[in-house]
Amino acid sequence: MSGVISHIGPNISTLERRQDSLIDHFIPDRSELTQTHFVEWFDGDALDSIWTFFQGSGGATKGMADAVGDGFQISSNAGDPSRGLIYFNDKRHYDLRNSILIVIYRQAEASPTNALIGAGLTTTTSLQQFAAYTGAAIGMFTADATNFRSQISGGTFTDTGVALDTVFHRWKIENSSGDTKFSENGVLKVTNTSPTPSGAVQPGFEVGSRTSAGTRQGFIRYLEVFNK
Known about the structure:
With 228 residues, the protein is mainly β. The two termini are 23 Å apart. The protein is built from 1 helix and 16 strands.
């Protein structure tokens, strides 16, 4: 379900159930928000048509997961490069220097080698580290990393110190003209003070494999994005 505040699915904390939207934890005064505010719960029997599914040359599959709380699933094929991405088909409503993205997702393997699994804001049909894009993303973005890493515009990585695993994490990416902040489960992990590029961006969630790494899977449960 997209664009409206709905119920909160299984495995969300008691604190989160007290709020209509996760952003209430970060900005209690909703009057500070503009009208450009999107919420997606990834529930039901099909992905909302507002999303476009993009496949790389190696292909990928997608669908609503048939498991408690797993939301929407993307699986890459065993090829190079094989990847799938959901995005807004290049409808870019959000300001990279003045926006917040909140996302809850997980990966199927604790330390998948040669994998790309992540979410963020992008100008193009890619969040991957070997593409020249403008945006900000969080995820498993290197060939054999042990921790989640933040990424700014096509290749500037910072280790978050959060170990890769298979459980859902709630990530917040806060963009401003001076820096980009990355928080995990309400705790600030990275402040990137590199000059934040300007531009209009769209949200995305991507799963891919490099070389002949085999199938990789990612699950996304929640995504929220808005201009400040």
